[in-house]
Design brief:
This protein has eight helices and 26 strands. With 501 residues, the chain is an alpha+beta fold. Strand 11 and strand 12 form a beta hairpin.
Length: 501
């Protein structure tokens, strides 16, 4: 897909790469910039990028965003459009950036290609850099504006646009590199995973005006009560299933660095909030773009809402609540009805209250369904605060918990054993396989080029290794090292780890 041509309207979009910032202030207003580039002059044209931008603009408008839509942007227009976006957002705002068009990765950096990007051949990467927009720079600009939430979406994971018959193309497979080094509070999503390309259509009979990713993502954004992680997860599953029908591998990925849940269409279990006012209409000329005025969202009470960490073990789930305020008691219930249950106390004095510390943890059954945990607590004045809703999604919680463990125990991923020959065991990876999409290893090579088969995840008993699984590889006696790379369920890729005998 393509990236830039500025036409002001009210809309927003998430399509191939999604990024989100968080700052402490409450959002003043919602502002979106949506760009679609079809009409490339020197590289292959695209068919659906402009339609994708318009669809995302309409979608974001329904979610209360003031949307600027830009189409078929050359380099100068792209820069002017970004300046107008800068002027439209203020500290505390929610900012949404969507790009559909050609994107290209050079040395781990992502570049958005304007419509006048020159044709380039081998060794001319600098031409592409100079003529394009660095995606990381958009992240920096929004960070400098101190927006509360910034969401970046790129539907740009396509083949190398510089490939031409009879020439050696600029090195690269097309598409974008994972945006893993993001600040805290950022969320990024791509329309396809590493080494994958995104589909514009499923077949010649596919009459949809939008790409497979955008048509799916736009619908998921409008689902009430879904946070961004859930939107990304549901989109990933649906897009992957559609691509499978035509024997194509496309698995959208996201990178979650957010501290809090972000809801664009109401909080969990609720419709779109009353606090989101209808956006003010913007003029149709970018050059005259005025500040967007939306009634200020009322501030909530000053109490700090709890957050929760979910940990899966053989017996079920442990849920640990973190509450910034000193507390005299904690209670909870599952769902909107029923009695609250006290968590009890632990044999530790809280130095802030000089009283026994409330137990911050609860247990849930292994087969506990998805739902909302309502948590409330008694503050030091004896007043009851809450209840606060905390969403429990077993699948997402399991993946996140196991991913965290794998990151913390990277030195244990592989181990060598001498037993009737040389073996390398990956039992540890099998134990936490629910967070892993693919394991690749390299034997005496720094490049993992061999896929290791893992048994499927059993969410009912995720830590158990099936009795018929083989958790090791047989190696040649002279083998000195094995490298390993993990592709996680969210599509992100680990660093390559090397293990020596």
């Amino acid at each position: 897909m393509n990236w830039l041509s500025f036409k002001v309207a009210l809309a927003g979009s998430l399509a191939a790469c999604l990024v989100v910032f968080s700052a402490p202030a409450h959002a003043e207003k919602r502002v979106a910039l949506v760009i679609g580039n079809n009409d490339y002059k020197n590289v292959p044209k695209l068919q659906k990028a402009v339609n994708d931008a318009r669809t995302m603009g309409d979608t974001l408008k329904q979610l209360g965003f003031n949307v600027m839509v830009a189409e078929n942007q050359n380099r100068q227009a792209f820069s002017e459009t970004l300046l107008a976006f800068d002027r439209a957002v203020d500290a505390g705002d929610t900012a949404f950036f969507f790009y559909a068009g050609h994107g290209f990765e050079i040395a781990g950096q992502n570049f958005l290609l304007p419509t006048d990007v020159p044709a380039a051949t081998e060794g001319q990467e600098e031409l592409v850099r100079d003529a394009s927009v660095l995606a990381d720079r958009i992240v920096e600009r929004l960070q400098n504006k101190k927006v509360r939430t910034a969401i970046l979406v790129f539907d740009a994971c396509r083949n190398n646009p510089f490939e031409r018959a009879g020439t050696r193309a600029v090195a690269g497979g097309g598409g974008l590199a994972p945006m893993t080094q993001l600040p805290e509070g950022v969320f990024s999503v791509f329309s396809a995973g590493p080494r994958q390309t995104a589909l514009d259509r499923l077949s010649n009979d596919d009459a949809s005006p939008n790409s497979v990713f955008t048509r799916t993502f736009a619908k998921e954004l409008l689902q009430p009560g879904e946070n961004l992680v859930q939107v990304a997860q549901h989109t990933r599953r649906l897009v992957s299933e559609m691509a499978d029908t035509v024997k194509h591998k496309q698995i959208p990925v996201y990178f979650d660095q957010m501290v809090d849940d972000v809801f664009l269409n109401g909080t969990a279990g609720k419709a779109q909030p009353d606090a989101v006012a209808k956006p003010a209409e913007l003029p149709q000329k970018v050059a005259a773009l005025p500040p967007v005025s939306v009634p200020r969202v009322p501030k909530e009470d000053s109490v700090n809402a709890p957050i929760a960490a979910f940990s899966r073990h053989n017996g079920g789930w442990t849920v640990t609540f973190s509450i910034a305020d000193p507390t005299l008691g904690i209670s909870w219930r599952m769902g909107e009805a029923g009695d609250f249950r006290e968590t009890g106390f632990i044999d530790t004095l809280d130095p802030r209250t000089r009283k026994r510390m409330p137990n911050p943890s609860i247990e849930l059954a292994a087969d506990a369904p998805a739902g909302t945990i309502q948590v409330r607590y008694v503050d030091t004045s004896g007043d009851m605060q809450g209840p606060f809703p905390i969403r429990f999604d077993p699948e997402a919680a399991l993946i996140r918990d196991q991913r965290k463990i794998l990151d913390m125990t990277a030195t244990s991923w592989l181990s060598f054993r001498e037993f009737n020959g040389l073996l390398v065991y990956y039992t540890h990876l099998m134990s936490y396989r629910c967070a892993i999409r693919e394991v690749r290893v390299g034997i005496d090579s720094a490049v993992p080029d061999r896929v290791v088969k893992m048994p499927p995840c059993d969410s009912r008993d995720p830590l158990v290794i099936p009795h018929d699984a083989q958790p090791y590889l047989k190696l040649a006696p002279q083998t000195q090292s094995v490298s390993v790379e993990l592709t996680y369920r969210d599509g992100s890729v680990s660093e390559i780890k090397s293990f020596r005998r």
